[in-house]
Design goal:
The chain is of the alpha/beta class. The chain is about 40% helix and about 15% strand. The protein has a single domain (about 5-370), classed as Ureohydrolase domain (Arginase, Chain A), CATH 3.40.800.10. The protein has helices spanning about 5-15, 30-40, 45-55, 85-95, 125-135, 145-160, 175-185, 215-220, 240-250, 255-260, 265-280, 310-325, 350-370; strands at about 15, 65-70, 105-110, 165-170, 190-195, 230, 250-255, 285-290, 325-335. The two termini are about 20 Å apart. Manganese (II) ion (MN) binds near residues 173, 200 and 212.
Length: about 375
């Protein structure tokens, strides 16, 4: 497949940024307003064109943002499908920092059919029906579900912009599976730094292989269970830390340990760096579930949990670990703007925290690229 064919396929499987949630009436005006803002155009008709023009320059990107506005992989309360649009809106609202700095490209959203999660769960008849709906024909070799569309899009991004660092905006945490798997195909030996209140370490949940509660299990299998998965902020689990650490050879930092160590981000980061170095890690993938952050800073999420690390701690650990290793890829997930409504400061507070995390990841990835250390 040549570059032009890949770009062409991207225009079929993606929508302009903010457009992955399918709307026909309710929500349409807000979606178009956001897109006119993102693409700096006056008329709705110009959005698609501006997006396609941008894709022509994908090879120049050093950081690529991809939205996956799907919450079909979530388990309790939904709303993370609104995350990518709301985070972009937040970035646009801050006059002092531009939304897309030089070198950062937003390739858009994967097209989301809200009832679908992964193609392996679908009958041939359903796949054919959704292909007809999305692509006007059934005989195309294109995925139809968010996780598979994300995987395909990242495959093209990697081929078209091999030195760019992809950052996936969820969506629920299931999108970390295709995003991490894509980073693994980059060929470098990865460490996985995962912020979360939950372990996400089930082999399956209710018979479903890939969802918010299982992606980290499969990621750890890809890593060979050799201690390269580090989880920070874990505090809500049916089993104790010792269970996960002894059965799956992961390292978990629970709040009790963080408190006992005086919330010393530097010491924790140094330990993680040492662990990764001892295991030959060459680059790090960061998966940031916003519910890993204490609920008093980020309540607009499906399963907010008190007692977690502050945004400052999360940012410190991230920045320090990534000062020792280049960033291979990242995701920022579970930001659910319709939630947290009991609190007058939400969802703005959560979105501010998410924007800070994203700013850090983008800045680090750009700096890596400038040093020639990107992927
Ligand atoms: Mn999670």
């Amino acid at each position: 497949m040549d570059a032009a064919e890949r770009r062409e396929e991207l225009t079929h499987i993606l929508r302009p940024a903010g457009g992955g949630v399918y709307v026909v009436s309710t929500g349409l005006a807000a979606q178009r307003a956001l897109q006119r803002h993102i693409y700096e155009v006056v008329h709705d008709e110009a959005i698609e064109h501006a997006w396609r023009i941008g894709l022509e320059r994908l090879d120049e990107a050093r950081v690529v943002l991809l939205g996956v506005p799907s919450d079909a992989g979530a388990g309790f309360v939904r709303g993370a499908n609104q995350g990518p649009a709301a985070i972009r809106e937040r970035l646009l609202s801050r006059a002092e920092t531009p939304y897309l700095v030089d070198g950062v490209m937003d390739v858009g959203d994967v097209r989301v059919v809200p009832q679908l999660l992964s193609d392996e769960m679908l009958s041939a008849a359903q796949i054919a029906a959704t292909r007809r709906a999305l692509y006007d024909r059934a005989d195309v070799d294109l995925p139809v579900s968010p996780l598979d569309l994300c995987a395909r899009a990242l495959e093209h991004v990697h081929a078209l912009a091999p030195r760019a660092v992809p950052i996936v905006l969820g969506g629920d945490h299931s999108v970390a599976w295709p995003a991490f798997a894509a980073a693994m195909r980059g060929g470098r030996r990865l460490g996985l730094l995962h912020f979360d209140a939950h372990t996400d370490l089930l082999p399956e949940r209710l018979g479903v292989r890939f969802c918010f509660a299982t992606w980290a299990y499969h990621a750890n299998e890809l890593l060979g269970r050799d201690g390269r998965l580090v989880q920070v902020g874990i505090r809500r689990s049916g089993k104790p830390r010792e269970h996960w650490e002894s059965t799956l050879n992961v390292r978990q930092y629970w709040p009790e340990e963080l408190a006992a160590r005086g919330h010393d981000a530097g010491a924790v980061a140094d330990e993680i760096i040492e662990r990764f170095r001892a295991r030959g890690v060459e680059a790090v993938y960061v998966s940031n579930d916003i519910d890993g952050t204490d609920a008093s800073f980020a309540a607009a999420t499906g399963t907010p949990e008190p007692g977690g690390p502050t945004p400052g701690f999360v940012r410190d650990v991230t920045r320090r670990v990534l000062s020792a290793f280049p960033l291979a890829g990242a995701d920022l997930v579970e930001v659910a703007p319709p939630l947290g409504q009991g609190d007058p400061d939400e969802p703005e507070r959560t979105l501010d925290v998410a924007a800070e995390y994203l700013d850090d990841l983008m800045a680090i990835a750009l700096a890596d690229a400038d040093r020639g250390g990107g992927r």
